[in-house]
Amino acid sequence: MHELMTREVSYCLPHESLARAAQLMWDQDCGCIPVVDEDRRLLGIVTDRDICMAALHNGRPLHELMASQAMAQRPVRVGPQDDVREAQELMRHARVRRLPVTDGGGRLVGLVSLHDLARQAVSERRLLPRVRMREVARTFAEISRPWAKATTSPAPRRGTRRRTAFAG
């Protein structure tokens, strides 16, 4: 993991606003921000989707909502010495595109993404025995599989609305 992970990772504290988390994502062109304590120990992770859902369900501006209100607690993580295949398996099982990398004390030391795995598999031949494109593609397909399936009711009777339901 050490050679693949991004080491310079933006993060926020639990009491910081979701507006700040969203701004960090925009500035860093990323889809998630780890949430850490003052000692940089990982507490959770906030994704762009988490921010959207928090805004929708709370009906309040992002500057009024805290990272702790939207973060996924106890996120799946890897260590810097963990195997790439283990990271892929964790991504596939948890259906996530990014994994925080923490040291033995739980402190954030990096972030590894499915994009990192794919880029390395293509660009560096020395990693091909460990990261095969077929495995990366399988992981991406599994992560991208919909959680719920949208179904539409039959054509509505005159004067009524069509309903869409989600089954999953």
TrEMBL record:
<dbReference type="InterPro" id="IPR051257">
    <property type="entry name" value="Diverse_CBS-Domain"/>
</dbReference>
<protein>
    <submittedName>
        <fullName>CBS domain protein</fullName>
    </submittedName>
</protein>
<feature type="region of interest" description="Disordered">
    <location>
        <begin position="147"/>
        <end position="168"/>
    </location>
</feature>
<dbReference type="Pfam" id="PF00571">
    <property type="entry name" value="CBS"/>
</dbReference>
<feature type="compositionally biased region" description="Basic residues">
    <location>
        <begin position="158"/>
        <end position="168"/>
    </location>
</feature>
<keyword id="KW-0129">CBS domain</keyword>
<feature type="domain" description="CBS">
    <location>
        <begin position="71"/>
        <end position="127"/>
    </location>
</feature>
<dbReference type="InterPro" id="IPR046342">
    <property type="entry name" value="CBS_dom_sf"/>
</dbReference>
<feature type="domain" description="CBS">
    <location>
        <begin position="5"/>
        <end position="62"/>
    </location>
</feature>
<dbReference type="InterPro" id="IPR000644">
    <property type="entry name" value="CBS_dom"/>
</dbReference>
